[in-house]
Amino acid sequence: MTKIGIVENDEKDMALLKNAIEEYYSKNGDRDFNLVCFPSALSFLNDTDKFDVAFLDIMMPHIDGMELAKKIRAANNKMIIVFTTNLINFAIKGYEVEALDYLVKPINKNHLFKTLDKISYIMKTREDKFVTLKNKTAIKVVPANSITYIEIHSHLISYHFMDGTTFDVWGTLKEEMSKLPENEYVRINSSEILNMQLIKSLNNNEVSINGVGILYISRLFKKDATKKIMGYFGSKI
């Protein structure tokens, strides 16, 4: 989940930015975010460790956005900082605190959405989990989300990737399942594990997978696999 804080003392500007950010995530079908608004820098100071992203207005009473950013950076070098202000001449100072972007009011929605694209990419990169695969001749380290599905034939396990390539290892599906993010992969029968992110549809025992086609849930695995798949998509609604 991406946790976003808006620090803005103008109620109208706060509402406009909040609505635009919510529109962005709604259009992208992504509800895995949390957005909280703060009316001043002082009200945000005690919660800086709880957020991934902060939209900071520059001109605020008591502590301005630039000073707040310096305090954030002293304690948190991972938070993504975006400045919002009427004053374009502060832009260069943003580099001192490694700000991702600088949005001039009235905020252009296209500019904001491009900034949110960058933020989404950064957050996705941070969340990527990697899997180490090895056989007798090679070792391969891959992002877990690049795997479409895994199948086994007589202890020979084939990893299938989004780019159409494969990599073979020896072992058991139980061993391979333990390497993967448990909440993103599901075993559907005695010989296959699939990436739930790629599921297009579930119809009885048929699972349609982007870039793969139809895979089948066996009777033995149907109850647990169906429950896990429905739970996965229920968490995305």
Can you walk me through this structure?
- It is built from six helices and 15 strands.
- The mean pLDDT is 88.
- The chain has helices spanning 11-27, 41-45, 65-75, 109-127, 173-177, 219-234; strands at residues 2-7, 33-38, 53-57, 80-85, 101-104, 130-134, 139-143, 147-153, 156-161, 166-170, 185-189, 192-195, 199-203, 206-209, 213-216.
- With 237 residues, it is an alpha/beta fold.
- The longest helix is centred in the middle third of the chain and has 19 residues, at 109-127.
- Strands 2-1-3-4-5 form a five-stranded parallel β-sheet, with helices on both faces. It has a five-stranded antiparallel β-sheet with strand order 10-9-8-12-11.
Roughly what percent helix?
25-40%
Helix count from the secondary structure assignment = 6
Order of strands in the sheet with the most strands?
2-1-3-4-5
Element string (H = helix, E = strand): EHEHEHEEHEEEEEHEEEEEH
State mean pLDDT (0 to 100 scale): 88
Structural class: alpha/beta
Largest sheet: 5 strands, parallel
Please mark out the parts with pLDDT under 50 across 5 or more consecutive residues, or reply none.
Answer: none
Cα Rg: 23 Å
Alpha-carbon distance between the termini? 13 Å
* Amount of beta strand: 25-35%
Shape: elongated
Q: Count the strands?
A: 15
